Amino acid sequence: MRNRTGKLFLLVLTTVVFAACGGRGESTVGEGRITVAALESAYGSALWKEVTQAFSAKTGIEVELVIDRNIEDVIAPGMQAGDFPDVVHLATGRERALTETMIKEGALEPLADMLEMVIPGENVRVRDKIAGGFLESSLTNPYSDRKTYLAPMFYSPCGLFYNANLLEQKGWDLPSTWDEMWELGDKARAEGIALFAYPTAGYFDAFFYALLYVVGGTDFFDRATTFTEGIWETEEARIVFDIIETLASYTERSVPSNANSANFTRNQQLVLDNKAIFMPNGTWVTGEMRDAPRADGFEWGLTGLPALEAGGDSYSYTWFEQAWIPAGARNKDAAKTFLAYLYSDEAAAIFARSSAYQPIVGLGDMLEGENSLFYSIYDGGTKAALGAFATTVPVEGVTVYDTFFAPVDSLVNGSRTREMWVNQIKRNSDLLRAALK
User: Fold this and answer.
1) How far is 346 from 356, CA to CA, in rounded Å?
2) What is the pLDDT of residues 224-235, one digit of tens each?
3) Is Signal set as a keyword in this record (predicted)?
4) Where in the chain is the domain with CATH 3.40.190.10?
5) Residues 155 and 320: beta-carbon distance below 8 Å
6) CA 49, 50, 53, 54: dihedral to nearest 10 degrees?
7) CATH superfamily name and code, 159-316+388-434
8) Which pLDDT does position 101 carry in this prediction?
């Protein structure tokens, strides 16, 4: 019953979207006032109230703020009647899938001119302020037409965490290429230190996605994550599995036995005890291990995955939210001015007080301590890896996790060969491709 109701909602919304797009020029509402609909998430509501007030003070554009934990339920009736908010902050991945519906129906306003705008109160274009990689993803460019329709919002970076003090004490350089990574692995092994550990195989999602970008960029990532026929027989795929197989040989042997929900912190502890150098993780790891013992002088470090060769691209995976303008919005120029303002230092500082961080260049300079380190990862040339495997209808006995991530344990402990794993990926990709939504 719930699925049928959801489909009915999508049908009604779709009809209204196109009706609204056709008649939006008839509005008598002026450009000096906009309606902003925002999800009240764990960050709370105060940040939106403060940032909209600051925007109005700077631009003279009034903002009617609509904020709710279930913002879809609040704005859907008006949208069905052709009354669209001018700006919506609502990411993909929500149960109601409102943002996905708008994407599928071509009901979002393109943001190319917004990206060329100078940020209110500053002297820099929006495009130049947004960190590298965020505008090169299917999460912002959903139609593969090189046009941005969703603006990247609050984000959380992942990458390789390590003890910066260990490298400094040993005189070891942070590797910028995979060849340098293997050289470091040999040096560490000679001193009884593993190059790599991971909490659980599930943490290979962010690692795997970033590696796809490192090896083949956005095009290879998009083809791989949509299970394109023959993709796992390409040269790029060979390099991906070369790297993972080699990395498995440098991984601390005890990791697979503790790679579960009960004991994963033991694997994280390896880095704190200088028994392993790198582990893939997210910014939450410092909180998880806050009270754990650690080597003298321990200092968190975070880096992206190394490039294939000198001068190549390094990538760090990130999760982020999105904001967008409905194609049926009545005050688009003012709405784009508002979106542009969200990337200002002023707005970023307001958001940051609630631990909501914008993907802008120089954000790390506004933060303190570990957050300054973590959220400046994209300031030094590392690019953001974004996206995930495409959604499919359920396939009996086949999941993305079991296909692409879980086998890492078996590769490390030697119970499965690379060839066995790749053959499984090829078989399952055929099944998943046939089940694409």
Assistant:
1) 13
2) 999 999 999 999
3) yes
4) 35-156+318-385, 159-316+388-434
5) yes
6) -150
7) Periplasmic binding protein-like II (3.40.190.10)
8) 86
- Residue 28's pLDDT is 32
pLDDT, tens digit (0-9, with 9 covering 90-100), for 43-85: 899 999 999 999 999 999 999 999 999 999 999 999 999 999 9
Q: How many CA atoms lie within 13 A of 225 on its CB side?
A: 25
CA atoms within 13 A on the CB side of 25: 1
CATH number assigned to the domain with residue range 35-156+318-385, chosen from the 4 options 3.40.50.720, 3.40.190.10, 3.40.50.150, 3.20.20.150: 3.40.190.10
Res 31: pLDDT: 58
Residue holding tokens 């961080």?
357
Give the long-range contacts of residues 290-293, CB within 8 A, separation 24 or more. Answer: 292/265, 292/268, 293/269
Which stretches of the chain score pLDDT less than 50? Answer: 1-30
Q: Quick one: pLDDT at residue 13?
A: 47
Instruction: State residue 29's pLDDT score.
Output: 36
